[in-house]
Automatic annotation (TrEMBL):
Domain of life: Bacteria
Transmembrane segments: none
Keyword DNA-binding attributed: yes
PROSITE patterns found in the cross-reference section: SSB
UniProt GO cellular component terms: nucleoid
This protein's name: Single-stranded DNA-binding protein
BP terms from Gene Ontology: DNA replication
Length: 216
């Protein structure tokens, strides 16, 4: 069976009610925020894009539990005259939660489209930032930022542009601060896939090689 290229499963509660975003061929789409719990007890506050048709099937309400199946999507938007890459959880199915499934799982298969950015924190923790190009229908691609930690980061630092990657992890929101040239500090949020397992396969024509890493 062919592996899914882009599969996302989230279970959480509605933190911000749907607001109109855009329409596609006359079909309205809305954006809401889903609060998805981590094992630590904190919540990832994740943007969700859903069609009016799907929302009508679940009748969303504030703080309502909700299960989503879909994909991680990216799109470009001009903000203050600058193009920004925005990440969203694109809903293909919405339903009440069932059972005790993992509340946040992502499976991606794509190509590394930028050199890995490897660094260490002031406390000595290793981090690597990756940008994965994931194909979807009609010749489009999503460009999805991913972050690796510890042993995964060391493993990712050896990768090269064009490597095919299979990633398992979770979609997370990560607050950070950005300092502007005038000294002003802005509070911002990054949305990315935190990698739990990473497997690589060289492109066709390269020496056959499969490698994997399973975290710290």
């Amino acid at each position: 069976m062919e592996k899914p290229v882009n599969a996302l499963s989230l279970t959480g509660t509605i933190a911000h009610m749907p607001e109109f975003s855009h329409d596609v061929f006359g079909e309205p789409f809305y954006q809401l925020t889903l609060a998805v719990p981590r094992l630590s007890g904190v919540h990832d506050m994740l943007p969700v894009t859903a069609s009016q048709r799907l929302l009508d099937m679940v009748s969303p309400a504030q703080d309502m539990p909700l299960h989503l199946e879909g994909q991680v999507r990216s799109y470009n938007k001009m903000i203050d005259g600058v193009g920004r890459l925005l990440i969203t959880a694109f809903a293909q199915r919405l339903a009440p939660p069932e059972g005790n499934e993992n509340p946040n799982t992502v499976l991606l298969c794509g190509a590394l489209c930028k050199p890995p950015a490897y660094r260490t924190t002031p406390f000595g923790r290793e981090i690597a930032d990756l940008m994965l190009a994931v194909n979807r229908a009609f010749g489009k691609s999503d460009y999805i930022p991913c972050i690796a930690w510890g042993r995964n980061a060391r493993f990712a630092a050896q990768l090269t542009v064009g490597d095919r990657l299979m990633i398992e992890g979770r979609l997370q929101s990560r607050p950070y601060q950005k300092q502007l040239p005038d000294g002003t500090v802005l509070d911002k949020i990054a949305y990315e896939v935190s990698i739990g397992r990473l497997e690589t396969e060289r492109p066709e024509g390269s020496p056959a090689e499969n490698r994997f890493s399973t975290g710290e």
